[in-house]
Amino acid sequence: MVLVCRAVPHRAVLCRIVLCCAASCRAVPHRAVLFHIAPCHRHGCQQCRGAGRWLRRKLWGSGAVPHRLWQQLRRLPRPRFPFWQRYKGSAGRESRALRHRGAAGMGAQSLAVACRALALCLALARAANPGFVVRITQAGLDYAHQHGITVLEKELAQLKLPDISGDFRIWHVGKVQYEISRLSLRSFHLPYSRISLVPGVGLQVSISNAFAELDGNWRVKMHFMCVPGSSAPCPGRDHGSFDLRLENIYIKIHLRLGSGASGKPTIDTSACSTRISSIHVHFSGKFGWLYNLFHKAIESRFRKILESKVCESVAKSVRSELQPYAQTLPVTAKIDAMAGIDYSLVAPPTATAQSLDVDLKGEFFSLAHRSAVPFPPLALALPPDHDRMVYFGASSYFFNTASFAYHAAGALVFEITNSVIPKGVEFHLNTSTFSAFIPQLEEMYPHMEMKVRLSAPSAPFLTIGPDGLSLKPVVDIQTYAILPNSTLAPLFLLSLTGNVSAVIDVKSGHIVGSLKVGRLKLSLKRSDVGTFQVRMLQSIMNVLASNILLPRLNERLAQGFPLPLPDRIQLSNILVRFHQNFLLLGADVQYQPQGRR
Fold this sequence. Notes:
The two termini are 53 Å apart. The protein has helices at 46-60, 67-73, 93-128, 138-157, 288-293, 295-326, 396-408, 431-434, 440-444, 538-559, and strands at residues 2-4, 13-18, 34-36, 132-137, 164-170, 174-189, 192-198, 202-222, 237-259, 265-283, 332-334, 339-342, 350-351, 355-360, 363-366, 390-395, 413-416, 450-455, 462-465, 468-471, 474-482, 488-507, 510-527, 561-562, 569-579, 582-591. Helix 4 packs across helix 6 (295-326). A hairpin with a 5-residue loop joins strand 21 (474-482) and strand 22 (488-507). By secondary structure, it is an alpha+beta fold. Strands 17, 18, 19, 20, 21, 22, 23 and 24 form an 8-stranded antiparallel beta sheet that branches. It has a 6-stranded antiparallel beta sheet with strand order 13-14-4-16-26-25. Strands 5, 6, 7, 8, 9 and 10 form a 6-stranded antiparallel beta sheet that branches. The chain is rod-shaped and about 125 Å long.
């Protein structure tokens, strides 16, 4: 996008902006945000200000650029030159004065503005990339559509129709008054319908060949048969019942998808149209034949009323059923007493020709103190798979924020004493055991219990590739001797590094996993008991890692982390695949209506 200043003959470039955000562009793999400003030589002119307002309407109004960016840009330095200083030609006095007075300051000021704007836009790019993506395929939309149409049928069958009254004239007969009341829908059927994606817009529901049946009462009064002022009953009065059948009803509904201030998805009816092709009315009673003479006028009124009522019912159903259900998607999922997951939408859902994509923040956070994550989410582009109803893309950012959150909460600290060693493990955590490898322990702290404290100096960083999920954690192992007075005497501090792989699955709507430890490597960071051969302790550390530490971690991972699912949704036919920098989960969906949970 290029904005130009049209107040000058050469139309100098005011600013050049190339925005490629996750919410609005998927053509660029890295979804970069570039913001380049080239200063207009006529700072402050009215035309440039108008161009700025135009930019704000086009980008901010369309939702492509969030409100917070414009709030930041408004605080950038403003031009120093008043708008009335116009360009008068290269030889004009005002042009020469402007160049002499502002050339140096303008260059420095423009550079500062450009740098600050670039920093803001890079921050926006970081915030725009999702950590977690939910993709609903056409198969998933079709499944949801089946349940939605069932709800809509029930809503339409409960339509309340108003009474109809009026009068008409019959040739050579005179005026006839009629009244139609107690209209009751017996049924409303939607046998053929489909849901389709409208790229860049939302969803469209098309219903065809629908039909409905209703009945009611009629009442008529023919004035020419009534004697004015007479107390005798008027022979021109009569009443009866009627049956009405609506056929070939066509309904088209456009659904607009968005995101609310809380990060929850929103859905509303942006357009609705109804067309009733055929109406058949049959009146019974003594004067039923009279109604059949002017049935076209009656059918026309029925058609107008029903067409408006159907769209009113559709809008009501979306507001009362579909929107509240969409709001059950969890924005924040509490995992345990330490951490939660932020599943808020970072952009409105995006409809493409093949699927509906929902970009979520996908970030773990500490419940005690939420702090900014020190690394940005990478771009996440799901492969074009459509065999399942729904796909979940969990980026490496998603898992690494879990590591960061639990590390910040102090959960990656484990203390081991004799009391936590399983009974089946023939190993005793005391100085007598370690003295076989460190002889001086027996002299310094004879026959004393020991305590081992394992902690991660930094949050472990996880990588995902086609071969799977792995990490190389660094663990500090501080050992103590427990003195008779229960105080701790530090012995030595080791650093442990190793290769750890993970197995991932989905159970009961949760991502579950287990870790497998590969080769471990020890190094000595500090010793309070003198020198010793560190490699001699390798077997002991293997026992502590495989029999104590690993089972604890796997027990927690077996509980899993909840997926962002709305109420009463169960997953089946699970697919797990690894891609570069993200994990892809595919599944089919089963909806459990209320009362069957």
